[in-house]
Automatic annotation (TrEMBL):
Residues 1-30 form the signal peptide. Residues 197-370 form the 3-dehydroquinate synthase C-terminal domain. GO terms for molecular function: 3-dehydroquinate synthase activity; oxidoreductase activity. Keywords: Amino-acid biosynthesis, Aromatic amino acid biosynthesis, Signal. InterPro entries: DHQS, DHQS/DOIS_N, DHQS_C. This is AroB' protein. Pfam families: DHQS (PF01959), DHQS_2nd (PF26558). The keyword Signal applies. GO terms for biological process: amino acid biosynthetic process; aromatic amino acid family biosynthetic process. Residues 73-166 form the 3-dehydroquinate synthase N-terminal domain. The gene is aroB'. It comes from Symbiodinium natans.
């Protein structure tokens, strides 16, 4: 038995030595793969580039294939004549495995797709997250642009597109730039809200009420600016609070009657009756922070209304119609909210005042009165 144990120990040590030698010196196929980018290589950023398959360089286009961008027959990718990575067909599992294996080893991977686009690009973006390798995607159809540009809330670092998809790619590039801007806290906090004093609460009859359902979730303290006059809007809270009687709907704002204005993401206004799926609205927090929300659905039903009137800090009077329901709430300066059914003359609520009138939702300097 002792001799058997000694023999087994010698075999184990021999195997360990072989393993360590292989660990220190990887097989040849690993050594011949592209070298990792130099320390000076650019890291991944939120900005997105647009590469054009053919044509002349123009505003918004970063590179043109055949000029400062080359793809060799073997897939080698060159920028400004310098080899930076390779193009990989990710239409198969083997192709995706190859692309994942390059993460961290090259500066760029250019993905070329088959029938599937989103799942492969998400897989490779996930593999490259946190590393120096940037991901470009070759897009054939305009319908694929937004999905790839915002995949996993990261998006590809570049889109290679034919001329007929260029417009969609440039729009997505601009939208990516807007997202970067929104992430700067100072820029999100410049929206000025003020306190309104409630003048009265009365019967508003029955009419068609609009619930605005978003494609994102609202936080407590967030809502939308609504009003019967485009120059005086009140901050209506989202349905984010729990209740013993009805479940919360954290994607929804019960915005009021169809005639009311709502503040859009670009600073214009629309009538609630005009809102459509895909419209971008302003989501405003009671502390003044603002972000963009996309409309997923508008739910219109006949409901009873309360007529709520207020006066702003400058002495101007305005109001709006909101559904008579305990779950419809207005934001207050202290960060709380009050149900419209509990409002009384003298109650303080948050709102926003804009000088001048509006024509088709756009601010104009002419005198316009709304009563």
């Amino acid at each position: 038995m002792p001799k058997a144990r000694k023999k087994l120990r010698r075999i184990s040590l021999s195997l360990l030595v072989v393993f360590l030698s292989l660990w220190k010196q990887p097989p040849a196929w690993i050594q011949t793969s592209p070298e990792p980018p130099a320390a000076s290589s650019p890291s991944r950023t939120a900005a997105m580039q647009v590469w054009l398959e053919s044509g002349a360089k123009q505003d918004g286009v970063d590179r043109v294939l055949g000029e400062d961008l080359e793809i060799a027959d073997d897939g080698t990718l060159r920028l400004d004549g310098r080899t930076v990575g390779c193009a990989v067909d990710v239409s198969t599992g083997d192709g995706q495995s190859k692309a994942r294996s390059l993460a961290g080893c090259v500066e760029w991977i250019l993905l070329e797709f088959g029938e599937w686009t989103m799942i492969p690009v998400e897989n490779i973006l996930a593999a490259c997250t946190g590393g120096p390798t940037r991901v470009a995607a070759r897009i054939r159809d305009a319908e694929q642009v937004v999905g790839v540009a915002f995949a996993l809330q990261i998006g590809a670092d570049a889109l290679l597109v034919p001329p007929d998809v260029l417009e969609a790619a440039l729009i997505a590039k601009a939208q990516r730039g807007e997202v970067v801007s929104e992430e700067v806290p100072v820029e999100r906090s410049t929206f000025e809200l003020e306190e309104f004093e409630v003048l009265g609460v009365g019967d508003g009859g029955v009419g068609q009420r609009v619930c605005v359902d978003l494609t994102c979730l609202l936080e407590v303290g967030e809502g939308m600016l609504i009003g019967s006059s485009s120059s005086s809007l009140v901050l209506v809270h989202g349905e984010t609070l729990q209740s013993d009687f009805v479940p919360s709907r954290p994607f929804r704002v019960n915005a009021g009657a169809v005639h009311a204005y709502i503040l859009m993401a670009d600073g214009s206004t629309k009538y609630l009756s005009e809102l459509r799926m895909g419209d971008a609205v302003a989501i405003v927090h009671c502390n003044g922070q603002r972000r963009v929300g996309v409309v997923g659905r508008c739910k219109v039903e006949r409901r009873p209304f309360l007529l709520i009137s207020w006066i702003n800090s400058g002495g101007g009077e305005s109001g709006t119609m909101l559904q008579q329901a305990e779950t419809v709430r207005l934001l207050q300066a202290a960060g709380g909210c009050v149900s419209v059914t509990a409002l009384q003359p003298g109650s303080r609520i948050l709102g926003w005042t804009s000088e001048g009138g509006r024509h088709i939702g756009t601010k104009v300097t002419g005198e316009i009165a709304e009563h």
